[in-house]
Design a protein that fits this description.
6 helices, Helix Hairpins, about 35% helix, Immunoglobulin-like, five-stranded mixed sheet, about 325 residues, about 20% strand, alpha+beta
Amino acid sequence: MKAGSNLTKWALAAAVLAMSWAPSVLAQQADPKRWQLNMGKGVTHLSEIAYESHMIVLWICVVIGAIVFAAMGYALFKFRKSKGAVAATFSHNTTAEVIWTIVPIVILVGLAWPATANLIKMYDTRNAEMTVKVTGYQWMWKYEYLGEGVEFTSRLARDSDALRQSGEVPDMAANPNYLLEVDNELVLPTDTKIRFVITADDVIHAWWVPALGWKQDAIPGFVNEAWTDIQEPGVYRGQCAELCGKDHGFMPIVVRAVPRAEFNAWLAEQKLAAEPVADPAANTTEGTGTAPRSEDPEMVEDVLEGDEPTAPPGLQPENRDQVEPLPGQ
């Protein structure tokens, strides 16, 4: 009776622990958290597909594990030597062998079918509304909004770089995004299918933002494709995921997802800033030869040819004595 009471107490304690732990797992945010145990759900359609596939396989494994270990436990307890159990002498059982061969095959085929369909979706970049080219360098990223004339590089923010080289111990409270800040964020619109073309200029890199649900290698001489559709505005961080040299650990990625209207306004500002500034030296408008030399390029030619315009009569050298002095002179 006492053993049964203790078992009941342990069962209730486990149930309470599971109830308190489950919400924290199910309510995970896009960025990894301390002591996070489960896979993050992400903020894109692809990350949701990966999360759902993961959970299906996880629970199938849990069920299989529970059945196997329950059978083992029962056999160890029920047929223990102290109760006088005698081991069977048969070498095999055809029925059992057929069952434990067919059942795993059925399970694997059942998992392979939706997994294949999901992989096809992940590599289908058709009907994208915009394309971003990502190029990896040692040790920074270059982003180009193809067809828009906007491009820039993104590297580790100066504050984080200075802190890592100072020898100081970073404080999580004061530096929550230590080594995960950049000088130029990749700004993307939400609810938009975005195609990425990813390559590298020197060595192999890998562009990885966990919240987007995928990682793609950046290989010199090759162009890999991927796509995303961010469903929630926010800031999502990642890093280079391929060893690429001494500063591999200092190639952060920051994606800022904003509503489409805000993105359009930001893109217009970037286009305006990217427009070339007019060069005064390229002015080809013909002058009259009478403007100051800094404004009229033909003034210099007139001087060289001896045709510099003369001053008004009142300012000719022979008339300087007739010019009234200014007050105080």
